[in-house]
Amino acid sequence: MRGPNREWVSFDDPDEEGRRWQIDVTFLLSSWQCIFGCGCQGVLTERAEELVQGCCSYGAHFSDRKDRNHIIRTAKDLTADEWQFRDKGLKKGIYAKCGKDEDGRQEWRTRLVDDACIFLNRPGFPAGAGCALHVHAMRHGIHHSDVKPEVCWQLPLRRVDEEQEDGTVISTLTEFARIGWGEGGDDFAWWCTEAPEAFTGNEPVYRSLGVELRKMLGSKLHRQVVEYLDRRRRSRPAPVVHPTQVKLRVRRSR
Fold first, then answer.
1. Cβ 232 vs Cβ 238: under 8 Å
2. Mean per-residue pLDDT, 228-240
3. What pLDDT, in 10s, does the model give residues 12-48?
């Protein structure tokens, strides 16, 4: 008999009455780590490690106007040696409209240049391939979540809010799987949370992405979640192992 392939824990939000969180224990205890530029195959319909695009091929969708405007302001601080397409970005702008949501509100994403995000420096650029916003953050000693679009610094974490009939909200915090990309996700030739080669981190996700988790959960809830996961790592029965990490163990045992 097969056991469960995912373990969850629930918390009431300490700062917002009527909101309950479902936390993906299995992913947060996994050894996933970003392998951008170190084996990441990208999100195109064919594997394309040599392009070093990661998940930046389609531009970043802004969560709202505030998110968009924050990146517009941040872009002005980037220098030419940090951002390959700075001249194009400052001349024509860094975003494009991309339809409306189910409530009729306008949505935006970062503009594309040469078939990828305008902020993505390509191989051969002196600062190296990768996000110009991330380069700027590292050079100035700030966390990348302070300068990147929300979806970029949250990935591969994903929050989904579902309003219940009684008006309460269930917020699920889990991994950003293919489904998070919509129908297009099915066409990816490769995705990191399904790839054993990305589950080689030296510490669990809830530790390696601690800053991101704190921003998504709030300080009080984050502290509760960390305390729980610290205990869960040492308790019995052992936590449910991530399905992709199981594949890695099988591969290593051969």
1. no
2. 96
3. 999 999 999 999 999 999 999 999 999 999 999 999 9
User: Which tens digits make up the pLDDT trace of 66-76?
Assistant: 999 999 999 99
CA distance 203 to 196: 15
Q: Sign of torsion, CA 58 56 7 211? A: negative
Instruction: Please state the pTM of the whole predicted model.
Output: 0.93
Secondary element (H or E) of residue 23: strand 19-24
Pair type for strands 169-175 and 19-24: parallel
Query: Looking at residue 76, what DSSP letter applies?
Result: T
The CA distance from 160 to 171, in Å, is 6
The pair of structure tokens assigned to 200 is 């080689």
Q: Are strands 130-131 and 157-163 parallel, antiparallel or unpaired?
A: unpaired
Give the span between the Cα atoms of 93 and 96, in whole angstroms: 8
